[in-house]
Queue: 2 jobs
Job 1
Amino acid sequence: MGDATDRPPHRIVLTGGPGGGKTTAADLMRREVGDRIVIVPEAATMLFSGGFPRHQEVHAKRSAQKAIYHVQRNLEDIHSALYPERLLLCDRGTLDSAVYWPEEGDRDFFSSLKTTVEEEIDRYDAVIFFETAAVGNLSIEGGNPVRTESIEEAIAIDRRLQGIWSRHDNFIFIPHEKSFFAKLQFGLEKLITMLEGDRNG
């Protein structure tokens, strides 16, 4: 990886398994911190809620993840150009598509997208990972109408996401809590610490 840990944070991923609370956390962080940050919305939710076909056939899954990957990259680049002085909070990152790729392992994903795990990790200065509530056997339905995973599937996705994102040098893990408010507060404190480090650096 490059020198992401040596420069002020500009682009942070909020990720984790389904039902981790990251979208709610992103909204809370924006409200609490104000215009020092801007939210980059989740590409998958935008596409699927907008009518992008969602099928279980392998070719369809590959096509969907390719679309999500490219939309995610372009959303991030657009927001970076529009708000060059703000920190970008990305609701998921480009590596999430590698985990949702239909084939076992991620080699085919990276070859198909002509990229590497190192290149994608280097796009971000930090990763804040919200563990899925499914590990506490809690419902993950929430308010997202495009979520389809069972509790077992959510846990498996969460573990695979941890495996790939934890390679980042600045990986921050926010564990499941009985109190969702405590979990959100912990994540907010981590973000504010990074912002204060940027301001004092």
Job 2
Amino acid sequence: MHDKNVARVRRAQQTRRRIAQVKAARLTVHRSNCHIYAQVIDPSGRKVLAAASTVEREVREAQPKGGSVGAAAEVGKRIAQKAKQLGIEAIAFDRSGYKYHGRVKALAEAARANGLKF
């Protein structure tokens, strides 16, 4: 019997295989009930180039509840700024098997609004 997490991980692996063929840096997202995390990973998949999450002090001051859509949008804004400082403009969005809805969507749209292309 499969549970939700096994199915999510299977979807995530499928996406990562496609992104690896394109050889693009990827913006990966992980969410829990209380927090959301984003990382920009280099094309080889071996090194994290930038990271942002609702655990960071600056984000917590702006958005005290880490599990909200507003907090996810703040993380999207911060990850886009960090990626642009590194000279990364175009990335592949890896939603880690999560639905493109709610907090994942808010993070992606905030990253796009702040200059990342995907």
